[in-house]
Design brief:
CATH topology of chain A: ABC transporter involved in vitamin B12 uptake, BtuC
Shape of chain A: globular
Low-confidence stretches of chain A: none
Mean pLDDT of chain B: 91
Radius of gyration of chain B: 19 Å
CATH class of chain B: Alpha Beta
Largest interface: A-B, 22 and 32 residues
Order of helices and strands of chain B: EEEHEEHEHHHEHEHEEHHH
CATH superfamily of chain B: P-loop containing nucleotide triphosphate hydrolases
CATH class of chain A: Mainly Alpha
Mean pLDDT of chain A: 93
Number of domains of chain A: 1
Number of domains of chain B: 1
Shape of chain B: globular
CATH architecture of chain A: Orthogonal Bundle
Order of helices and strands of chain A: HHHHHEHHHHEHHHH
Strand order of the largest sheet of chain A: 1-2
CATH architecture of chain B: 3-Layer(aba) Sandwich
Strand order of the largest sheet of chain B: 6-7-8-3-9-10
Largest sheet of chain B: 6 strands, mixed
Strand content of chain B: 15-25%
Distance between the termini of chain B: 32 Å
Number of helices of chain B: 10
Oligomer: heterodimer
Chain lengths: 315, 265
């Protein structure tokens, strides 16, 4: 035990923090995409596990083919949009429940991603040979790039969801019956939202592949859970700090912050020398906790269990 | 204005739950008609309104509104002609959006929604005045989330939303049934004034016979998916609750006991 604690170096933790922040920012961007479907459309979109990898695969392959990184990212976004469209059409045109539609697209993307990467599970892109937008070799610059992209995305969100079309998307998640009565095509809004969302997820996948210097067929596994973790952690902290002053811009910013915080926790966990193979389990537990807390808090105020114990009501 | 000709709708056809909700029903409304609809449970009142609104396609017949055949148009595509208020106060508004955002969504009913601002400054002033005229103090809560409003307030807002962009037809589906009596009265008065002011052609379902007699210029009674009584003008204004009950008993036959009780509520 003493030997274990002696082996933990605080300096080492501090040193790994910046890298955690950079990766957290990229996951935070992914969470922004997820926010559209999870919070605004009220759909849990499982496509993202696949489209994140698609973004990474397309980016790496195009950069290897000599494309400039920004152009590769742009195509990655388009590929993500296509994936979202696919899920959206499976859901709205073919009547497949949203969750299942997402799973189907995700599954098919596994094969497609392999094909994009030329049937290998892993493709490296070296920052020495190619001009990348960000890389783990230059963490401060990567953080700056990540922050800049986050700012642009959040501003774009803030604008778009304030427009007529964006409002219609928000209303679709809130009350579909009302939307139809007001002449809004609920189906079109869902497809549009899913497409946008996956476009952004693919963008963050493309950034991640550049940061880590490779695209991997499994890089998106569990992305939805990490994204949800970011959204929920961000919202909880945003509410705790700003309360009712938390506006849409603030919420989105905290979603990105949520991604960073999530990843810093991961850094700490790794520093504690927990097996990195247990990370997925750990992430799932965190998300389950954060999802359960609001429910349990409500439950503790009013529940049958409480009545049985002789609480509030029966005095 | 509205021409419904011989529409039929059967739910769950060919199953044990088969329900012939509308049976070759025809109805013509003149511009400015304010028609109250009464009838027992399962008479087809809501089904008629839903058929006109396009919640699902009818099995047979045609629906023409303002010279346009809307029979084959899905719900959201005929919404540009129709304003609606539902029985459930929660159904007409988006709870997690601001009051002014809800109004702005309704203001654009049937329009193409592009990348212009969702709520403009000029609109805000318009909404302020409109909300003020409701007399509920809502004009000072325009940026509040609608979910924070009471059922009556939400129903009043939904009414305003239905008329912001003048509809060719206003459908009120027992829109006061879920409210307490005092609030229901207020919302009904509000409905009356909005209909009068905008000269709206209106179909209003109600469970309350007195309301059905007091409001509108025409009254129809439904039973088993069809219209069994249609009175208007002078004749309608002289109707009494008792007469209406007798007519109902006489026209609908056997099931009166139950339904009469419901109707007199």
């Amino acid at each position: 035990m003493t030997a274990y604690f002696a082996s933990l170096s605080f300096l080492k933790l501090l040193k790994s923090m910046p890298g955690g922040i950079a990766q957290g920012l990229i996951w935070g961007l992914m969470a922004l995409g997820l926010y559209i479907t999870f919070r605004l459309l009220d759909v849990a979109d499982l496509t993202v596990d696949g489209s994140f990898t698609t973004g990474g695969a397309v980016t790496v392959m195009l950069i290897l083919a000599g494309w400039p990184a920004w152009a590769a990212l742009l195509v990655a976004v388009l590929a993500g949009i296509l994936a979202g469209l696919c899920t959206g059409l499976l859901h709205t045109r073919l009547g497949i429940p949203a969750i299942l539609a997402g799973i189907l697209t995700q599954l098919s993307l596994y094969s497609i991603n392999l094909r994009i990467m030329g049937m290998t599970a892993n493709k490296a892109v070296s920052v020495d040979k190619y001009q990348l937008l960000l890389s783990s070799r230059n963490i401060p610059a990567s953080i700056l790039t990540g922050l800049l992209i986050a700012l642009v995305l959040i501003s774009a969100f803030y604008w778009y969801f304030g427009t007529e079309q964006g409002s219609a998307i928000r209303a679709t998640g809130a009350n579909p019956a009302m939307c139809r009565a007001l002449g809004i095509s609920v189906d079109s809004m869902k497809v549009l939202g899913l497409a946008f969302s996956n476009g952004i997820v693919a963008l963050s996948g493309g950034l991640m592949s550049q940061y880590q210097g490779f695209a991997d067929i499994n890089m998106g596994r569990g992305a939805i859970v990490i994204g949800l973790a970011a959204v929920i952690i961000g919202e909880v902290i945003g509410h705790a700090l700003l309360g009712k002053y938390l506006n849409f811009f603030g919420t989105l910013s905290f979603v990105v912050v949520g991604g960073v915080l999530y990843y810093l926790v991961i850094v700490i966990v790794l520093w504690l020398k927990l097996n990195s193979n247990d990370l997925k389990l750990f992430t799932a537990v965190i998300v389950a906790l954060f999802l359960a807390v609001p429910y349990l808090r409500e439950h503790s105020k009013s529940s049958f269990v409480r009545l049985k114990k002789g609480g509030a009501g029966n005095a | 204005m509205l021409d419904v000709s011989r529409i039929s709708k059967t739910f769950n056809p060919g199953t044990i739950n088969e329900k012939r909700a509308l049976q070759e029903l025809s109805l013509h409304l003149d511009p400015g008609d304010f028609v109250t609809v009464i009838g027992g449970n399962g008479a087809g009142k809501s089904t008629l309104l839903n058929a006109i609104a396009g919640v699902w396609p009818v099995d047979e017949g045609r629906i023409v509104l303002d010279g346009t055949d809307i029979t084959a148009l899905p719900e959201h595509k005929r919404a540009y002609l129709i304003g609606r208020v539902f029985q459930d106060p929660m159904m007409g508004t988006a709870p997690n959006m601001q009051l002014e955002e809800n109004l702005a969504l309704a203001k654009r009913r049937g329009e193409k929604r592009g990348l212009r601002w969702g709520v403009t400054k000029a609109e805000r002033e318009e909404y302020y005045e409109q909300l003020k005229s409701l007399g509920l103090g809502l004009e000072d809560r325009m940026t509040a989330k609608v979910g924070l409003l009471s059922g009556g307030q939400r129903q009043a807002v939904t009414l305003l939303m239905a008329s912001l962009r003048k509809p060719k037809l206003l459908l009120l589906d027992e829109h006061t049934a879920a409210l307490d009596p005092a609030t229901a009265k207020k919302v009904l008065e509000l409905s009356d004034s909005i209909v009068q002011e905008n000269q709206l052609t209106t179909l209003m379902i109600t469970h309350n016979m007195s309301d059905a007699i007091r409001h509108g210029n025409r009254l129809i009674m439904m039973n088993e998916g069809n219209i069994i009584l249609d009175v208007r003008g002078e004749e309608k204004s002289h109707l009494t609750k008792r007469e209406l009950m007798e007519k109902f008993t006489q026209l609908s036959g056997a099931q009166m006991e139950n339904d009469a009780m419901l109707l007199s509520k």
